[in-house]
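User: Hi! I'm working on a homework problem where we have to compare a predicted structure to a textbook description. Could you give me the structure for the chain below?
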Amino acid sequence: MEGGKACAPSGVFAHLEMLEMQSHEAAVKQEEMEQQEEKLARLKATVQELRLQRDDLQAKVDLQQKGQLGKEGVVLPPAQPSARAVLEWKIKSLKAMLRLFYLTGISGKLTKKGVCFCISTAYEGTYLDSYYLDLLTEPEVQIYRHSVPIFIPLEEIAKKYLQTDIRRFLSVLSDHLNAYVQRRYQADQLQKHFSDQIEGKLQRNSLCDLLVFNYNVSRKSKTFLFKVRLLYGDLCCSLPTEAVVSCASDAPASVAEMAAAHSGLFRRVALHKAFRSFGSA
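Assistant: Happy to help. Predicted structure tokens:
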């Protein structure tokens, strides 16, 4: 017992020394952290200052390249950009646009006189057709040659967007082409898979913005003839804006109601899918 009491003070002193050492180490670490934070703050301030200097120098370089800055650093009246500068700007813009359109079904490559675009069309993952557009970039952007169908309003779209917004021009043209091939695809699918229900010949024009056909519907062991007229007023859309479905005037009321229901369905669902739903109803 007495030996234990004699050793107690030395144990306390050792514990105090350990605490002092830990406190000292913590203080050193805290000081190092504060120094690092101060150093980081100084570095951030230096970086910000260098960025400002860089931006200022870049602005001066840009002005010098455009011939707008005198030797003394005084800004001169704006000068007209050279033809070469305009051409380089156009090429740079076209390259950026090619990267932008890469994943939108529009691809292209630079040519000696401009750029050639390829607009690919598809419907629900099914590749359909590709159309090509060769543009010249000087003295102004113009269409050199193309494979766009004659019934697509290419000239109208070009007149509206080509000189002012080439991205918009390509986007609108792509919408027209995709909508056209999708309407055509639906009509083809209807004739291919539901010819047994179609009475006579399906009538359509080149743009496939007007479809007229008749089809038979069976109800309670009787067959009724429905007459259809689909008008696609929005040429950038693959669904009709107007769908008229009619039946004989002496048909039962339930058949007339069915015709009205089919009319609404044609405006909401792709043509071949609508017929598929008739079979499962």
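For your comparison, note the following. Residues 60 and 69 are 7 Å apart (CA to CA). Residues 1-7 have pLDDT under 50 and may be disordered. Good luck with the assignment!
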